[in-house]
Amino acid sequence: MKLVDITLNKSIRVFAPATVANVACGFDIMGFAIEHPGDEVVMTLTNRKGVVIDKIIGDEGKLPLDAEKNTVSVVVKYLLEHVNSQFGAKITLYKHMPLGSGLGSSAASAVAGLFAANELLSVYEPEKALKNREALLPFAMEGERLACGSAHADNVAPALMGGFVLVRSYDPLDVIKIPTPEALRVTVIHPHVEVQTRDARSILKKQTPLKDAIIQWGNTAGLVAGLWKCDFDLIGRSMQDVIIEPIRSILIPGFDAVKANAMQAGALGCGISGSGPSIFALSQDQETAEEVGRKMQNAFGALNIDSEVYVSPINRQGPRIVDEGLNHE
After folding, report:
1. Which of 72, 209, 212, 299 has CB atoms 3.0–4.6 Å from 257's, for a disulfide?
2. What residues contact 7, with CB distance under 8 A and at least 6 apart?
3. Active-site residue 46, yes or no?
4. Where in the chain is the domain with CATH 3.30.70.890?
């Protein structure tokens, strides 16, 4: 078999979206993708097996170039080895979102890399390409294990599949995409404070009182039903977290004031995005979502905390090809 030289001119550029995980009452089992921000990967297949990171742009030198320590390269390596590809990959990673933000930064990089690699496989080794996005999910979860010590899916699943997702089970893995109202908007504010995911997990209680668990189960079921029925009032009533938020919110200065401002501005509900420090709010239209963002930013500003605000529809597509330089021979 002739080995095609594709080291220089066969590449693809892929965008993968940021995500909001947990979604108030849905700790570790719910998440959704947003239109922006997100990360991009430019990938080129090479004749030399193995994965290398050529450069990382936009991370201020904080992420490792070592391919064994970066989520984007590790998951691509797992995929290529799993399918026994004859090729390796060279990656340039563009970080367009803040690190440690609670917006699924590591998940976006991993998903962009996996999607790019599988798209290239579908052209140059089509018999080895995985047939659907869901098949890429276990590889993406391994990137989360590297990033924070837990192979959870509530960031990588929505980044990969788009929209809202429910992780019904991890063993066996069972992920369901949830229909959502077209008009739904999300406001995310990222304050310039630091919360480590490992720290945010370490402070959680190991046991939960039954009465709190019952409230949380009801809210989670209500949120799913509200999204499915396009019932904004039910969505708002269900976005109550009585287990995780009361503990984690102490790590975010001004959380109570920010949430209060969001609700007063008309948000359906408000909570911590992932492990924080970003905070998200859902609204039923663009105008409200923008006003919510202004009010949330005012609350942080009163504490002299700088922040960025993102207002976005729900991303329903997941990763997408931004540019492809595929020369079909």
Report:
1. 299
2. 44, 45, 46, 47, 90
3. no
4. 185-313
Q: Catalytic residue, from 44, 46, 71, 197: name it.
A: 197
CATH topology of domain 185-313: Alpha-Beta Plaits (3.30.70)
CATH of domain 11-178+319-325: 3.30.230.10
| 6, 319 contact by CB (below 8 A) | no
In angstroms, the Cα distances linking 224 to 28, 37, 187, 219, 220 are: 15, 25, 20, 9, 6
pLDDT exceeds cutoff 80 at 28: yes
What confidence score (pLDDT) does residue 4 get?
45
Active-site annotation holder among 40, 144, 245, 291: 144
Span(s) in the chain for CATH 3.30.230.10: 11-178+319-325
Per-residue pLDDT band for 3 (boundaries 50, 70, 90) equals: very low
pTM (2 d.p.): 0.90
Helix (H, G, I), strand (E, B) or coil at 159: helix
How many Å separate Cα 182 from the centre of its chain?
Answer: 20
Quick check: 221 pLDDT over 50? yes
Is 144 marked active-site? yes
Listed in order, strand segments (DSSP E) in the chain are 11-21, 30-46, 51-57, 88-95, 164-170, 173-178, 185-191, 269-272, 279-283, 307-313, 320-325
